[in-house]
Amino acid sequence: MISPVRKMFDGIASRYDFLNHFLSCGQDVLWRRACCRELRRALKSGDCALDKGCIGDKNCAGDKNCVAARLLDLCGGTGDFAVTFEKFCGKPVKAILGDFSYGMLRGAAGKKTSAAPVQLDAMKMPFADSQFDVILNGFGMRNLPDARGGLLESFRVLDNGGYLCVLEFFSPRNVFNKFFYKVLAPLFIPVMGAFFSGKREAYEYLVNSIIRFLPVDAFCRLAEECGFEVKRVKMFDGGISFGVFLQKPQKAADALQGSAAR
User: Fold this and answer.
1) What is the DSSP letter of 184?
2) Within its chain, how far is the Cα of 25 from the centroid?
3) Radius of gyration of the chain from Cα atoms?
4) How far is the C-alpha of 208 from the C-alpha of 202, rounded, in Å?
5) pTM value surpassing 0.85
6) Is 80 exceeded by the pLDDT of residue 167?
7) Nearest 5°: CA angle at 207, between 148 and 155?
8) CA-CA distance, 66 to 90, in Å (whole number)?
9) Cα(158)–Cα(173) distance, rounded to whole angstroms?
């Protein structure tokens, strides 16, 4: 049975990219770029993107056939985050675009990404442990039924030393953001969403999901409880959105077992 949220995203998939760019005045593009630039700085070492070397041949010394990172764009929608990461990485990436909405995955067709689309449940992914070096999650964490479960599952499939980058709208806490999300956004976003997509309820859900979600500091504490190290929190446009950069420790087996027991 298709969940109501999945059905909702299937229904807005054809206008999703346009409305993301329109409603954010193009800032969502800049936020993704800033996150990928930060990841590149964090990961880059010498000629290879990851400090542990390239995938496949760790002595490649810049071989053009090496793969710089195993990437999962989780809750990836139409793949914009994966596209941006591959541009900034500068080396071939072995990538998967994962989302529960088939309509969203179809929207990635024709984009300049090597990511293979996989329809999946972010709470129970069809991957073995430690399969990825980088996981991107752009505006998807708050749509999961349980943020803790989503973090633990991402922790499981992420390799030791790997990064999870969460770009998200978190529950507002300062005066400006409370005014924006509780006064302006409920008036503007559903109306524009209805005008361009005919799906007002989907954009009402968008606003309500932000208000109901965790504030960024509480999310960071939860990530630490799940075994991650919070490496950096980057605020965009006065706190409209945040990029949260989490790393799975190099020796993480004990941390994962302790988190799962909580």
Assistant:
1) I
2) 20
3) 18
4) 10
5) yes
6) yes
7) 20
8) 12
9) 30
